[in-house]
């Protein structure tokens, strides 16, 4: 089981908004509310004008199953 959050910058500032503490802290607070869905890992990633975050419950492949899974071109 996992929890997923997303913040979208409709102003399309090229992800510059996500370097500021306010939005990152907001995403972290959102993830904290999902801790029960995945207490083992918590990560944030910026993809363009979107900040994605997830929590992970390590059931399968606890050592190398970290997510999100990214390709070499991402």
In brief, what are we looking at here?
With 74 residues, this protein is an alpha+beta fold. The chain has one helix spanning 21-33, and strands at 2-8, 41-47, 50-56. The two termini are 24 Å apart.
Q: How does this model look, in words?
A:
This protein is an alpha+beta fold and 74 residues long. The protein has one domain (2-56). 18% of the residues lie in helices and 28% in strands. The protein has 1 helix and 3 strands, in the order βαββ. It has one helix spanning 21-33, and strands at residues 2-8, 41-47, 50-56. Strands 1-3-2 form a 3-stranded antiparallel β-sheet, with helices on one face. The longest helix has 13 residues, at 21-33. The chain is globular. The two termini are 24 Å apart. The mean pLDDT is 77.
List the helices and strands and how they pair.
Blueprint: E1 2-8, H1 21-33, E2 41-47, E3 50-56
Antiparallel strand pairs: 1-3, 2-3
Q: Total number of β-strand segments?
A: 3
Question: Describe the biggest sheet?
Answer: 3 strands, antiparallel
The number of domains: 1
Low-confidence stretches: none
Mean pLDDT: 77
Based on Cα principal axes, name the global outline: globular
Total helix count? Answer: 1
**Beta fraction:** 25-35%
- Proportion in helices: 10-25%
What is the ordering of alpha helices and beta strands? EHEE
| Physical arrangement of strands within the biggest beta sheet | 1-3-2
**Strand-pairing-aware structural class:** alpha+beta
- The span between the termini is 24 Å
- Rg from alpha-carbon coordinates: 13 Å
